[in-house]
Specification:
Elements lengths: L24 E4 L2 E4 L23 H14 L1 H4 L15 H7 L4 H11 L10 H14 L47 H5 L9 E4 L14 E6 L5 E5 L14 E4 L5 E5 L7 E6 L5 E5 L9 E5 L5 E5 L15 E6 L5 E5 L9 E5 L5 E5 L12 E6 L5 E5 L4 E5 L5 E5 L7 E4 L4 E6 L17 E6 L5 E6 L13 E6 L5 E5 L4 E7 L2
Antiparallel strand pairs: 1-2, 3-26, 4-5, 5-6, 6-7, 8-9, 9-10, 10-11, 12-13, 13-14, 14-15, 16-17, 17-18, 18-19, 20-21, 21-22, 22-23, 24-25, 25-26
The structure holds heme C.
The site of heme C has 19 residues, from helix 2, helix 3 and helix 4.
Length: 506
């Protein structure tokens, strides 16, 4: 990969005035290049070498791919996922095995024991090439220099599964997608409000048991049977001290089935339902030995596991500060969006192995590329890309699973909630855009649900929030959003204390 310079659009990230001006740096071996027009500073960068600093070349990885196919693939598989006893050479398990060790350790291990049926049978160069391929496959960036075929030259390169926030990296090209139809710059980034609204609101869809009213909610999801799950804040906007059950199941017609979870949550913030129909409920407020954690339940209400330390809000490897939302990738890797306050506490995506142990994190407060403030929502598309509702920055940041920024989209508004269905339809709820300067300032943008494509970034429809005076309140309309397999949209509302169904009219 060549370092990219002039064609990196940096300007839109510094628009808010809050964001510090930033240079995007690219390591090129020992040299460092500064991006023209991005502040002009030329920074030296000689942090400790790690697999994040560009330690192999693309050409080398390509040679390695051929050598891998010839010598390793028969056992470890074409996708490096491993077959039987032959372990995976990519992904969470592989990375956590090697995290903290050096590339020399890996080189010697492979050279002296692999291929298992013929150790040391390849040249040193071929082993180095194969390692380059493994690094590339695992998402570590290419650079300008080849990986040397001698372990004494590799001992100083650390394998860090977790990308250090301080690293100035060779990056994949960053592009800022606006409306993909060619349009002048101003209208391309301007408000996206005037779109069809082919839905009819049904505010009384969910039938609660007698005496129970819906509280504030930002958590709604469907399970594999088409049942709907809502977590509300116990009839109010806070479950602390309540004896109501906030986790509620409804059938596909909105009839109440059951509820559980009393006394376990303070401020339920989101619900994610995984492929096995387990319910992942995030609670982003620590109080009274509860909260700042993620509780995982079966659909019958059995608590399966707890992530984070209940009642402890902290930015750490085994704690969350204010966990907003969680998703689980197909291989079981867990991604948590942590941080609900701009400028303080967490602003990070935490990556956990399927067993819950910490693998790495990325993100930091700010408005520069790859930075975030208030990562309020998270979703995965069909390619496993990670969409983060970067609310304070009025954009969606799209990352690969290693935290490399792929795109930043502004056309879906100020995201409080995200949902991507199996056809890559993207639903984004904007509950905060406001005209006046101050909280939620996002002039010209209306609140509501924008619906479009997670593939192309095109917005196709808009369900406006009908709250009469949005500029007078911090939140109105949906924060949580989901859709069912028939295309009905559900919007979980904190301000109006309601969950509304929007039924397609065509
Ligand atoms: C004949 C089958 C076979 C072939 C061919 C083979 N391996 Fe392996 N490999 C294994 C088995 C089995 C294990 C697990 C046992 C062990 O750890 O030694 C393994 C383990 C590994 C590990 C350790 C994984 C970890 O997470 O610690 C690495 C790295 C590795 N192989 C790399 C390679 C590379 C690179 C090649 C090609 C040069 C290769 N292997 C070829 C069977 C094979």
């Amino acid at each position: 990969m060549r370092p990219r310079t002039a064609d990196v659009p940096v300007r839109p990230f510094t628009k808010s005035g809050r964001g510090r001006p930033r240079s995007v740096l690219f390591a090129a071996g020992a040299a460092a290049l500064a991006v023209a027009g991005a502040g002009g500073t030329l920074l030296a960068q000689d942090a400790t070498r790690s697999v994040w600093t560009g330690v192999y070349t693309d050409a080398q990885a390509q040679r390695g791919q051929g050598a891998y196919a010839a010598n390793c693939q028969a056992c470890h598989g074409p996708e490096l996922r491993g077959v039987g006893e032959a372990k995976p050479l990519a992904g969470a398990e592989f990375l956590s095995n090697w995290n903290g060790l050096s590339v020399a350790d890996l080189f010697e291990r492979v050279r002296t024991t692999m291929p298992q049926n013929a150790p040391r049978s390849l040249s040193r160069e071929a082993y180095a090439d194969i390692l380059a391929y493994l690094l590339k496959f695992n998402g570590f960036p290419a650079g300008q220099q080849e990986l040397a075929p001698r372990s004494e030259m590799l001992t100083s390169i650390r394998i860090d599964a977790w990308r250090p926030a301080s690293a100035a990296l060779p990056r994949e090209p960053i592009f800022i997608a606006t409306q993909p139809t060619p349009a002048p710059a101003e209208t391309a980034t301007g408000p996206v409000n005037d779109l069809p609204d082919p839905y009819k609101a049904d505010r009384d869809f969910f039938k609660l048991p007698p005496g129970r009213t819906m509280g504030s909610s930002s958590a709604v999801a469907t399970d594999s049977r088409g049942h709907l799950w809502i977590v509300d804040r116990c009839g109010k906007n806070d479950c602390n001290g309540s004896n109501l059950d906030p986790i509620m199941e409804f059938d596909a017609k909105g009839n109440f089935i059951q509820a559980f979870g009393r006394g376990m949550l303070n401020f339920p913030h989101n619900i994610y339902i995984d492929a096995n129909d387990n319910l992942w409920v995030t609670d982003n407020r620590a109080q009274d030995g509860k909260g700042a954690d993620i509780l995982v339940f079966t659909t019958s209400g059995k608590l399966l596991r707890t992530l984070g330390k209940p009642g402890v809000a902290a930015v750490g490897p085994d704690t969350f500060e204010t966990p907003n939302a969680v998703v689980v990738a197909r291989d079981g890797t867990i991604f948590v969006a942590d941080g609900h306050e701009p400028g303080k506490g967490a602003a990070r995506i935490v990556v956990l192995a399927p067993d819950g142990h910490f693998l790495r994190q990325w993100g930091d407060h700010g408005s520069g590329p790859g930075e975030m403030d208030v990562p309020h929502a998270i979703a995965l598309d069909s390619q496993g890309r990670i969409f983060v509702g970067d609310r304070w920055n009025n954009r969606i940041d799209i990352f690969d699973r290693h935290g490399n920024l792929l795109a930043a989209w502004t056309q879906f508004g100020r995201p409080s909630g995200l949902f991507i269905d199996k056809n890559d339809v993207l639903y984004v709820s904007d509950s905060e855009s406001r005209e006046p300067v101050g909280y939620g300032h996002h002039p010209g943008w209306k609140r509501g649900v924008r619906i479009g494509s997670a593939k192309t970034g095109k917005v196709e429809a808009f369900i406006p929030d009908d709250y009469a005076e949005p500029d007078k309140v911090a939140t109105s309309g949906g924060e949580g959003v989901t859709a069912d397999s028939h295309g009905a949209v559900y919007s979980a509302q904190v301000g109006q204390k309601a969950v509304v169904r929007y039924t397609p009219t065509k």
